[in-house]
Amino acid sequence: MNPGASAPRLSLSGVSVAYRRNRVLHDVGFAVGPAEIHALIGQNGSGKSTLVKVLTGLCTAEPGACVEIDGVPLRLPARLADVRAAGVAVVHQSLGLVPQMSVLENMRIGRLRARRFSRRIRWDRERAAAGRMFDRLGRHVPLDVAVHRLSEEDRATVAIARALQDTPHGGGLIVFDESTRALSRRSLEHFYEVLDDVVRAGTSALLISHRLEEVAEVADRVTVLRDGKLVEAGRAARRGSEGELARLMLGRALQAISSGGGHARPHAEPAVELADVIATRLDGAAVRVAPGEIVGLTGLADSGYDQVPYVLAGVERAASGKLLVNGDHIDLDRFTPAAALGAGVALVPGDRERAGLASGQTVAENAALPRTGTAGPRLSPIRRRAELAELIPWLDRLRLHPPDPHAVVGRLSGGNQQKVVLAKWLSRGLRLLVLHEPTQAVDVGARAVIVDAVKDAAASGCGVLVAGSDENELSMLCDRVLVFRDGRVHRELAGPCRPEVIVAAVFASSQRRPLRANREERVCP
Ligand SMILES: Nc1ncnc2c1ncn2[C@@H]1O[C@H](COP(=O)(O)OP(=O)(O)OP(=O)(O)O)[C@@H](O)[C@H]1O
């Protein structure tokens, strides 16, 4: 008998995982059908990544767990070679591509075969193998171009083509672990157009995402985790059900968020002003932020808007340009992170890899770093207590999980590490808070809290600059939005703006295509 004939593509049961004595998954089980997009959602720290790690062998489940692929049990703890052979591929955060490498290298990394005797790589064969994947997708991307030079849409295609190599024709499972979180609406439309073709051909997808609007729009079914326990397994998804999903995930209704910042003091002296900035992707950029004002920066992927935060924080060097702070003109070609902090400018970067978190240190020690330049243990006990007293209300407010300032940062879930970076800066008075994609990777409950906290920081007089690709986030937060093109401000959208207006200004067209037009025609297993 063929075990795969009527079996689910992936079936998990009795999965429990503990890190030391802390159990983070409790007897979890659900099934993903063939040819479906199945979403896995849950608050930060609810155990989603741990579940994926059980599947890929990075985490060991307690005895009694069972994982089957097409009805065939996977030996646990899983070995990567077995997982690949079973047709399972994982796409990590931000598409999991190496930007400096070519499309061909990204496609074939980890799979390159050398000649037996000369040990030389047969690039002709590698090209042919990569080309076959794009043929299978019915879309082509030039193989020799470095990935960072591709459009965002092409990058999404490469990520899917790369994962497809590990899945058999018309079968297999691709796990997307927050892979789409940095994609703009247009790139998301393209991503799901490609993925829909793949899924219709028989491959399944397990989608982990904090964007509930996206989940409600694209998933066939949804599984919900709360505190490591199953709340719902395989509930049918439908468009517009994001409120319901948030309630299941959080165990309470989501608070409504009003749009716009509302604390701008446009006639006051600017908190900071950037003028004539020339950098690798900036060409004469100029931005002014008043005290209490929340200004959004957005644009297409290559427009340069997302370089502004890093130039402002002294992390990326500008060729020339001026920063005006408190009557001082500072040359940006010699600007450093220490000078930025000295000017009262702090950055919350988009990815935690650039966040400067010391993963072996505790939450409290990390929060102390910017003030002291040293890790916490060297602080006097009195200073340490004072730091903690300022930090704890922010950790409570952002709902850090576990709510422990002495937890080691490297052992927190991704979204909770993001909250630590935010708490570190929100707990101190700044002239300008610069945020890049601040709610990326955090769950919807925390997102509402972060939006409120940033508005409170503005209400106390801090200027805020938010660079981002999420029009909903910009609409919720900003007093005005600057749309970049060719390295400088192309349009200014005054007043609180609706998300559609932002999308229309970025893409110079207001059409919003559905993310997965064909979903209703499909029959859920
Ligand atoms: N290496 C580790 N050591 C100890 N505890 C860990 C470790 N990795 C994760 N945890 C804990 O396991 C729990 C689940 O974490 P996990 O990363 O699976 O959550 P998640 O749902 O993926 O969260 P997020 O949405 O923030 O990525 C969290 O409480 C986290 O602190």
UniProtKB/TrEMBL annotation:
Domain of life of the native organism: Bacteria
InterPro entries xrefs: AAA+_ATPase, ABC_carbohydrate_import_ATPase, ABC_transporter-like_ATP-bd, ABC_transporter-like_CS, P-loop_NTPase
Domain ABC transporter: 10-252, 266-511
UniProt cross-references to SUPFAM superfamilies, sorted A to Z: P-loop containing nucleoside triphosphate hydrolases
One Pfam entry name: ABC_tran
Keywords from the UniProt entry: ATP-binding, Cell membrane, Membrane, Nucleotide-binding, Repeat, Sugar transport, Translocase, Transport
PANTHER family registered for this protein in UniProt: CARBOHYDRATE TRANSPORT ATP-BINDING PROTEIN MG119-RELATED, D-ALLOSE IMPORT ATP-BINDING PROTEIN ALSA-RELATED
Protein name: Sugar ABC transporter ATP-binding protein
Organism: Mangrovihabitans endophyticus
